[in-house]
Amino acid sequence: MFWGVNVLLASRSWPFARLLVPVIFGATLLILWQMIVVRFEISPVILPAPTDIAAAFMSNLPTLWVDFVQTIVRGALVGYVLGCGIAILAALAIDRSPFLQKGLLPVGNFIAALPIVGTAPILVMWYGFGPSSKVAVVVAMVFFPMLVNAVQGLKESDAIQRDLMHTYAASYWQTLLKLRLPTALPFLFNGLKICTTLALIGAIVAEFFGSPTVGMGFRIKIEVGRLAMDMVWAEIAVAALAGSGLYGLMALLERKLTFWHPSQRRG
Amino acid sequence: MKHLTLGAAALLASGSMALADGHEAEVNLQLQWVTQSQFAGYYVALENGYYEEEGLSVNIIPGGPDIAPPQVLAGGGADVMLNWMPSALAARENGLPVVNIAQPFVRSGLMLTCWADSGITEPEDLAGHTVAHWFFGNEYPFLSWMSQLGIGVEGGDDGVTLLQAGFNVDPLLQRQADCMSTMTYNEYWQVIDAGVSPDELVTFRYEDYGVSTLEDGIWALEENLEDPEFVDRMARFVRASMRGWAWAAENPDEAAMIVLDYDETGAQTEEHQLRMMGEVALLVEGGDGRLDEEAYQRTVDTLLAGGSDPVISEAPEGAFTHVVTDAALAE
């Protein structure tokens, strides 16, 4: 019945339907999940019911909050800003120098290919058990995707547009700020959006390899050890909310700043 | 209503449930960790044919850093698991009714290894120092110990700064921590092999401070123990395994070599395994597989004294049974 209503809503183009459809869809999935767990008496250590997860979530709010601050705020976000910032600066350097383009890009590619399970323990050894090592892991993870997107974005302006700037006697920096960065924005945002997820994964997984006794990765690890899966799922819910929030923020900025781009047109 | 787990569904699908008469009964054993002499008794029983003599076909499934044996058991991936009692009892409290059916290890091999030059000479000195400990269920004895000593684990001058470390001894060697959890039969020797002399270290065996908890017990799901056929299969399994342990304790060198043969990763070295076998033999010495209720009670008391965040909140009921070992030792 839900489904029928939802299909009907999806076929309409009412403004509120855009929000309502995914909400109903998600709720239906949760109800199905609950029904399957209850109906087949699935053991809570395999898959807890959504109601159990919600209960664990509500009764552990203070813990979830300090874990969130430790992992997302002090780890993922700091690493995200640092990593993406360095990558954009590196892209500008590469753009100005053919030597770097030939030298730095392959090295960046190599760093991107390093598996996190290999680098995380080493970085924990170098930077200690605190958030610094998590920041380092996140920087290593987000640097390359951001770099590639930024380099590509800087190539986006057409030769004819650059020639026009040249006839205006615009300097390199003027051309960069007035023409090349704006045309690069769709690519920059693409990189920024991809990196939101990578930053979260990096910060959480890095904690598996060493951490103080706080943090989302730490909590997931110890709660799996004692089979408190409802708490593990509560942490996963926090990660999903944080990830969606950060991604949503980037998408919103993109819409505000690249309103001129064809992909942003609304029919 | 029919009780159905994902694992049972998978088993039904694969059709391996139907064992006709004359077939060997299958037992899937989930180890707590990777293939090493810590599990020599089981590999010896397999290699020397003790399981076969009992009409069993045993699969030994190695574990690893991210494998929680209780979850494998819950999912139907194994009939029986080896687990430390703290983590098994925590799983029981969290809704997975596991029962201890035998306890080959009578002593704990867990200890704290500290740098002597950190000024730590007795447990009370730990306050104000940094301790790296394994978690994933291995942290409970330490937390209980600290709470019994009245030392906090939130850092500061009069508390311990606790770090969650991976399963290696790097934090100690790198001096990121003054002390680290080690096993008598494994990590302690990794520290020694790294070129540290025993004089430079101070060790505290949990066993000596009355806070040790039972390790490497054999656990099965409660519901299966209602089935007499399963109990009989487990009795044969435990009997053969204890024969394996007895042989391994008498022939430690040969036992270590058998373990090496079964190590498919090739990660283990001969020297390390021989030494491990010698140490593990001390932990199984004098045990016949039957759970010592005094040791069980000490484990439970230790866990209940876990401070602000106890592992288990109340004494478990029916978490062990002698039914299997009684049957195994009867013949």
TrEMBL record, chain B:
Range of residues in the leader sequence: 1-20
Catalytic activity: N(6)-(pyridoxal phosphate)-L-lysyl-[4-amino-5-hydroxymethyl-2-methylpyrimidine phosphate synthase] + L-histidyl-[4-amino-5-hydroxymethyl-2-methylpyrimidine phosphate synthase] + 2 Fe(3+) + 4 H2O = L-lysyl-[4-amino-5-hydroxymethyl-2-methylpyrimidine phosphate synthase] + (2S)-2-amino-5-hydroxy-4-oxopentanoyl-[4-amino-5-hydroxymethyl-2-methylpyrimidine phosphate synthase] + 4-amino-2-methyl-5-(phosphooxymethyl)pyrimidine + 3-oxopropanoate + 2 Fe(2+) + 2 H(+)
GO biological process, one term: thiamine biosynthetic process
Any matching Pfam family: NMT1
Sequence similarity: Belongs to the NMT1/THI5 family.
Subunit structure: Homodimer.
Name this protein carries in UniProt: Thiamine pyrimidine synthase
Source taxonomy: Bacteria, Pseudomonadati, Pseudomonadota, Alphaproteobacteria, Rhodobacterales
